[in-house]
Amino acid sequence: MKIIGELINASRKMIATAIENQDREAIQKVALDQFENGADFIDINAGIFVEKEADHLKWLVKNVQEVVDAPCCIDSPDPQAIEAALSLHKGTAMINSISLEKDRCDALLPIVEGTDLKVVALCMSDEGMPQTVEDRMKIADELVNKLLQKNVLVDNIYVDPLVQPIATKDDFGIEFLNAVEQIMTTFEGIHTICGLSNISYGLPERKFLNQTFMIMAIAKGLDAAIVNPLDKRMMANIIAAGALAGRDSFCANYLKAFRAKKFEF
Amino acid sequence: MKIIGELINASRKMIATAIENQDREAIQKVALDQFENGADFIDINAGIFVEKEADHLKWLVKNVQEVVDAPCCIDSPDPQAIEAALSLHKGTAMINSISLEKDRCDALLPIVEGTDLKVVALCMSDEGMPQTVEDRMKIADELVNKLLQKNVLVDNIYVDPLVQPIATKDDFGIEFLNAVEQIMTTFEGIHTICGLSNISYGLPERKFLNQTFMIMAIAKGLDAAIVNPLDKRMMANIIAAGALAGRDSFCANYLKAFRAKKFEF
Known about the structure:
Two copies of one chain form a homodimer.
Chain A: E1 2-5, H1 13-20, H2 24-36, E2 41-44, H3 53-67, E3 72-75, H4 79-88, E4 94-99, H5 102-112, E5 118-122, H6 133-149, E6 157-160, H7 172-186, E7 191-194, H8 206-219, E8 224-227, H9 232-244, H10 252-260
Helix pairs in contact in A: 2-3, 3-4, 6-7, 8-9, 9-10
């Protein structure tokens, strides 16, 4: 299971302030905390700073990678900003995200073409947000094929089927879950990923619902997630679900995490 | 989701003592507590009293049904003991369980034939415990067909794919989960059920693992469970997973349970 630490996102006030003040220490602490609690990638998002997004992403890459030995997940829809961030990045970054929206797709494909970059392929098109498994499979099929044609390896593609809130429609959860399963069985060797907090929008005990939904998604095959690695129950859920899903040889990760007493079992 | 309350089991010391002393009040309290916390069926098991099992089951049926308006799940491999318990039972009981073991199957089929009884069909045969999805499907197929031939409605059949510990073999969890999914899609209108505490045998934080595995099983289609309804986190998991799986119209059960403040969200 690949963990993408989601906390360095400028939509969070504390991060926006740190970026504005160029507060290296604050950003580096958040990066390090996430890394030490299991993040494989550190997501960086400076989307609220429209004019300065590229500069801020470069600053984030530089400062994050100064303290953690992990790649970044460059979280932007803007190809120029992504290229700026990549120019300073060490190792193999993840791009979050390409979609089937024409402008975004056309601009991002040349950037990932023939590279080793990992790419989040978001199931969204100019026709809007997908609702059913079929909607998602149609977009995934087209998007994955476009990436494969540009010599992106299937193992570098992380399809995000796009979570929508169950408070809006009863079957939004199960349609997402079944899409995860179908993507994993249709494209051999591919990955699925998501940020899942939208699932609980409009309902009480959102954190609990998000934690529960993560376990369900892992049961259906999800193998990467954009989460808060400091959420000790979430991380315990991910580790336990991985073992229960047969992805943890001799339950070694589970036992190691249990002994480290870092998470909330 | 059907909940079978598992606490009235004579393998628990407190229950064995209550049965031996014919302590009506003690048994009735356990029955009522489970019912009030969401049990649809009250499991009764007096298996440790080999000679007196039938008498004790009758006593349990009578005293449980005196205080709760719910059917029992008669938990015994012995056809005589089951028939004795049924003789006093009001409403439609569940029988736990028939299997493909020849003696057990031959003796129990005539009891359920043409009735409205609900039947747990355990995936076990004289060849032993199943390990893979295929092992389970082979047994389920034969057993379900035997029941259908005896005019048991598919809606009254609850297949238990039989949980085995992941500490024994990494893929015992996922093979069980995939069997749940395959049973639910192969036999339209059927149910799946399990007692799942075996999954965590030999590992630390068993309660947490059991709670997590329950969510995964619901994601794969499980729609009945033999659990402790007084486990507030387990019940919260079941209710939340039901809503996330699209089985809770307008999240009404989830919201009701949240407002009742009975469970641990």
